Every structure is written in structure tokens, then in C-alpha cells.
Amino acid sequence: MELFQREAQFLSKLNHPGIPKIEPDAYFTYYPHNSNDPLHCLVMEKIEGLDLKEYITRRGSCITEKRAIQWMIQLVSILKEIHDRNFFHRDIKPSNIMIRADGQLVLIDFGTAREVTETYMSKRSEGQVTGLFSAGYSPLEQLNGQAVPQSDFFALGRTFVFLITGKHPSEFYDSYVDHLNWRDAIPSLSPIFTDFLDRLMARLPSQRPQSAKIILQELEEIYRTLYGTDPHSRMKHSASSVSDREKPNAPKGDPFAAKTTELMPKTTPPTSAPKIPSEDKKTNTGAKLDPSFVARTQQELAEFIGPMASIICQRLLNKNPTMSVTEFVQALAQKIPDPKQAEEFQKRCLK
User: Both 224 and 306 in a single domain?
Assistant: First the structure.
């Protein structure tokens, strides 16, 4: 419960395209019928796309070095936003990073995020911080409840080992010498980039880069050295012209380009609620809706979407207490994914 509440608190403080958005009133409690125990609810932005673990699996091949650097720049920019607010994530791994259809990466699952406060540092020094650990991705200090912002950099490096090799980092670990022998798995990588990744994954936090800003500067310099262009202009172009890159005749040097369309789940724009003919419309503008009508509508909605119907109805009325009957029903119909069911719901309520 504490982790759940912490996620809501954290997300409410950030506004970044690489972080799921929530509204100010997105966290609330709800008491189900005949229950003394509340349900704790959090409504957040739905990220359409795949997580990177699933992406690599469905793609059937790893990403290129060029793509890896571009993606890392995106993710470190997100981490900079988080770290600049004195938070750190603590659970970076492929399954906690999603890719939208336009190529934007999104970091998810902030239930493990912590704020770097004097209280946290005091608890950490006394061994009172829970050691959250994702095998193969989390650093040793995190296992011991001693995580610091630089722990995110270690996990980020391990994440990219997976993305460019297709293998879980633990497959490369040699416990006898306490070393990750991953470089031989992909000898075509540039030494400048492999050296950089190894520094991210250094055993001690003091041996890793000390800030996201420093990492960004190094990555940008690596990209310019290897490819002779500004990485930010390339990424802006990629995002704005993704449909062109995804055509079958995309440049052969970028295998990601030709396969993105095949890998992203096919989605269709949300279907608007069916319009009710003008002669059937009922108006009630300026006055509160009849409680008996609201109760009946809520019951009808529950048949299509389940017990969340009561919460949705109440939140809608709280935001729009004087909406008309038709506006109320049409707004609720948009919560029903199936267009035919949405139409049936409206017919029942407005007959």
C-alpha cells in the first residue's frame, strides 16, 4: 500500500513525455458495497505500445549500436528529470520501459521510487530501507538496502546489455571473478561505447558517472564521434517521420525502421459514442440529475464494465454536476470499449 501511494505522489509531481501522466485527483479511495475495507485506486495515462522485453522478443533480433545510443539519451533525459527532483527509480529494467508507436520511450512502474531526503539517508545508514532487487539488473548495494541515484545508472547499463545482446545479463556473469563478460557476445560494438557501458555498470557507485547530466554529455559526444551528427536532431526527425521510416524500403542500415510497424500493436482511434437522434434527446441543463436516474444508469453501466461503474459515475457528476441527461449518458458510453455495447447502453438509458 505504501508503494502504491508513493507512486501516486511521485507521478503527480512530474510532467514529462517519458513518464505516465496522472490528474491531480487520480488517487482516491472507494468503499465497495457492504465492505468496511476501502479500495485504493489510481487512474493514470494508458501507454499504448510494448515494453522493451516484449519488443525484443517479438522483434527476433537486437537493436543496433546507433539505436542503443539514441534510446539511452532518451532514457537518461527522463532520469535527469527524476533525479533533479531528488527522486530515483530503483527498478529500471526492460519490462519497465515501454515504447510508443512514435518511438518515444516511457519509464513506468514508479512504485519503487524513493525521494532522497535526510530521513531516507538516515534510514539507509541504519539499514532500515527495504532492499528491492531485480536479479541481473539491480546493483549489489540495492540488495543491501543501500540504493543511491547512481544505482539507476547501473540498472540502465544492464538493461542495454540485454537490448544489444538479447540475453539476460546474468547469463554473462562470472561469479569466480565477479565480472560481466558480455563484450565478446557482440564484438562489432565500438570500444568507446562498450567502455562507457562498463563504467555505468561499475561495482561501486563512486566508480559510475555521478549525474544524469554527465551521462548525457558523454553520450552526445560519443554519438557525434561515431556518426558525425547531433543526436537530438536525428531523434526529432525520427519521431516526426516515423511512418516514412517504417516503410518496407527503409534504409538497410537501420533494421529497426523496417520492423517497427510489425511489432507495435495495431490500435484504432477511440470510437466516439453513437449520436442520439435529436428527437430522442433529453435536456436537463442547469439542474442536478435525478438520483433515481443516476442509480439506474449506473446499474446499466455496470453490466458492461463491472463495479468501476459507480466510481466513474460519481467522478463524472463531481466534475459536471449540472450536465444534461444526454450529456451524462454519452459521456458514460465513451467508457465502454465496444461501440455496439456503447450504443446499446445509450438506448437503454435514453429510451
Answer: no
